[in-house]
Protein 1
Amino acid sequence: MATTESIQKAYIDYVLTEGKQPQSVYVFAKKNKMAEEEFYRFFGSFDAIEQSIWTSLMQKTISEIRSQEIWPQYSSREKALSFFYSFFELLKGSRSFAVYSIKKHKTIGTPKVLEPAKDIFEEFATGILNEGLESAELNDRKFFSKRYKDALWVQFGFVLNFWIHDDSAGFEKTDEAIEKGVNVTFDLFQRSPIDNLFEYGKFLAKNGGIKEKMGF
């Protein structure tokens, strides 16, 4: 009997062997000795299978890192780093499929195949970012704080593309890209001299008459 996992596995095997999607659901179902209607009980299309594979990778990563005993002690930055390192470590086991899927769906912006995974990522990112805002680890900037999750997704897309083209041993360069990229992103989320300058500017504007009171 077919299952979600068995169809995913059969699909991955097919596209990596043939270099393309099956000609039709009928052909795919027949090759895997299942009725066509059985396929549709699990998926509505081949793209839906690919979406589910990326979603499963995202969900598995988040589940695994949250189960770590040290997880509650991590800062927002450390939780983001843990996710990135863990996701790309897990992705190594599906590298051939990941490269095929992303290159096939290459487009400007988020590929359709990653859209459901993006929703899961953004929910996770919003959670750890809100923790950082509440603890004052991150700077709560009016209008911009809600976009922090978008910056993390952009960083995810950058690292994914970097990883796909990374030919270093053990993907060491990708680990370096994660470390530098996530840290730079979180540096931007935290209070900076620019914030201090902005606050000082607001203070001067609010107290513009102070020079007259001081006799200057």
Protein 2
Amino acid sequence: MTEQTANTNLRGALFALVAFGVFATHDVVIKYLGASYSPFQIVFFSVLFGFPIITFLLMRDASGGHLRPRHPWWTAARTCASVLTGVGAFFAFSALPLAQVYAILFAAPLLITVLAIPMLGEKVGWRRGIAVLVGLGGVMVVLQPGSTELQLGHFAALTAAATGAFASVIVRKIGREERSVVLILYPMMANFVLMGAALPFVYEPMPIIDIGASAIIATMALVASTCLILAYRHAQAVIVAPMQYSQIIWASLYGILLFDETLSRSTLIGTGIIIASGLYIVLREGQGGTSRTTPVLRTRSRSGTPVAPRVGQFLSEEQRGLRSQPPEDNTTG
């Protein structure tokens, strides 16, 4: 590795750390609002304030075409999954300790690896298969079924992890053929319409400071996504992807300082297991020759954030890794 490559990778890693730090702060605002408002209301207003920002970004989409999806059923499935991911994540952040939510959401890369088998034709060898099983075992350590009373927040976080992984794999499946504007706009419109329909049943009047907090959620999502775009422009995916686990540090600090939360031993141990297995999968994919589609490394946008733009649309084909596909092989990964 040359000195220039090392420097660009370092800049990419720093941009990624900033991005996930902002995302963690974004989640703190969600938790603050979640103490007083329904997740439907929080999602609605965050999407409402995000529309002008996203519309401005979509104006730069110079690709020709229309807004009718080329893959309507996959687009509909992704839209439904994205709505469930946002509501599930927002509810989980309001109901559970921050670190515990992240521990469960960190299972998403493991689920992406599993879903890539039937949906992308990915071949997962015994090493990555064991890593997935170990990681999912870490989720069980966090949840402690049987000894801990599972709450609706736990199921919401699990739902967000599963549907977020499903939506990410769909993007890998149809992302090259579907316009980015379609992949961004349909979930946002669905969130706006569905959350708006639910709003009369859950609405609570919001003082100006809480309305401002909703706008801050949308703004932070944009700032974090911008930093993530810069990270992938500077560094390889194998450098940027592991930085997502830094969110557990922010979650622990914010939880202790702002919400009087404590990091339980089961959460600490389970999180360590999940992160270790996730890192192993990322590093295996980064080696090349062990994955035909590298589904985790090419899943760049953070799920569970309804107003965050897709990172991939702002990267060149080379930065997205589309020009140099790994050869199809039968090796065990």
Protein 3
Amino acid sequence: MPFITKKLHSPVRQMALTFLMDELGITRSEGQRLIARGRLTQNGIVMDDQFGFVEGSCEFICFEPVTRGFKPMFVANDFAVYDKPSGLSVHPHSRQSPYTLNDEIKHQFGEDANATHRIDQETSGLVLISRHKNSESVLKRLFSERAITKKYLAMVRGEVKGQIDIQEPLYRKDHPNLLISMVVKVDPKGKPAHTIIKPLRYFPQYDMTLVEASPLTGRTHQIRVHLFHVKHPIVGDPVYGPDEEEVTRFIKKELSSEDRLRIGGSTRLLLHAHSLEFTYENEHICIVSEKDFIQECFEAMGISRG
């Protein structure tokens, strides 16, 4: 478990922020961030006020990365790229979360390294990470300005005969019910979203098409929802396609690989972040995944590629 609790001791009454800075050798801003996140407790009470005081025994919850030897596919001075497998989360969802890509990022590049964009746990493929705070700021700005071109591969139901330009707003309702809050829908109340779909290869024997998806905006589940909306759902999507009962079972982690294969035709979501292209410090960068996505699709569907 990457989150562990350390026992600390303040011999005198002092400000919580000063104590953490001295004890952990961190900057003021880092200390403020950790206190705001409720990482410091005393007598079971969270010390979330940086101007509060501590004295005597206290506990600090810290993130200690655990490596499994998963290496990035590309490393530069300021950033790196991982080719993530489906099923691996980028960040821990809670302090009880097991191993995530964040473990490898922090283990290999240090505390200041971070993922610079979102990618679903179910989606495989390229994740761009910054190696320090300066590059994080630059790369996140490039994403916000849409100066980084992302292209995905997806295996979808049916035959896609030509390019599809999808411009449908996407809406997600903030709701205590996890099913309601998780599912994104095409809705006029939503935020603008734009995806371009290009067919690459049709497999008539399985009535499915390999497509390239280019999201021109960055909404949650954008490619998945847009493809579902145009009647070409992604093979193996556990949320957009199955009935509500099966979606609920997926959210509750009650579906086995066999269940998913039976229900959705694949043991995983067949969506892959295939390439990243951008300019960094006047250098043109183009990174393409080395994975054989078609082979991975067929393996996940339990059929022979031949």
Protein 4
Amino acid sequence: MSTEPSAGERLAAALRRSPIYVDPSLESALPPAERRALLAKLQKAPAPTFILLVPLVKGGTWNDADQLATVVQSRLGSKGIYITLRDDPNDVAAREFGVEHQARRAAWAATLDDRLRDAPLSAKLSRTLDLIIAGTGEQEYRRISAEIDRRYRSRNPSPRTAPGEDSGTGLTLPLAAGGAAVAAVAALLIWRRRRVPAVRHSEVLLSRNVLATAARASEDQLREQAAHEVVTFGEVLDDVTVTGERASELMTRALDAYQAAGKVLDSATGVPDLAGTLVLVDQGRDALASAQSVTEGGAEHPPTPLCFFNPLHGDGPVPVTWRPLGSRRSLDVKACRTCAKAVRAKRTPATLMDGDTPYFEAESVWAETGYGHLRQDLIARLQRGER
């Protein structure tokens, strides 16, 4: 029988010697002078506080921040605050055990703060500690969240109709046209939230009718909204507890979708990638809703795919058989009502474009999987770094 200490035990032993542990691969991220400054702040913290900088790698020793903090805390046996990295090694997370000092919100505030967007890791750690010491993590988090919402809403005031559906005036929103992305995203989010059991507070719901803002929308606005949705989903996951084997499996899928969405967003180079980010968040929310239902003794909620031709059109409830131009192979997919109507009338649906090419004709994981319509391994492939 092996007597070698486990990875968690080794990290706990390191924290007994110093409240800051930095993995050798991350030494350059926290130079000695900055480490000393953080040690001085740790002495002022309202509870025992530990900084644990260890890479999080899916399939590795540490999959996510919660797993790392939970295992190390159990080995260390100390109540307190554990500050770790997120999936992005430039962002921080925090978890509390047996204490309550708004640490999780403080870490979110430091991560979301525009002033720290390009700041070194030490600055985000320092800001997190400042908020914990001052007891203002929740207050600052709410301030920053409200500012993000104000920026988005100022660009997207109440419009009158939604993309992918008939408006009563014959107008639809062709996503191939410039400036349509954010409007479609907002509609997608509200339609999906109406279908999926509530997993968030009502104040995060967006207006359904957004067509009037389409002319002012831009790729940058789409990126901002996608980032907002990834962060919001992360907060939802933070607040949910599930029990049982099947619920845990579904929760793992939700977490995998969240991590994949973050990776895609970080390296997104255009609207197809940003649309993919929203698809992943949507798949994660479906899995989370099922996990919650199973935990409460209910049934799973079968996910409804998004429109194959453009996932930003929203739900794709209508099955259609479609043959791409120049292809002998027909595909059985699902589409929104407007795209399904176009296919049945032998017209070209309003397809999401990758540059000048329909996304499904480009060389990408989105084309190969049809945003999840054609293959079921979209999340796994993105976690492996395929694009």
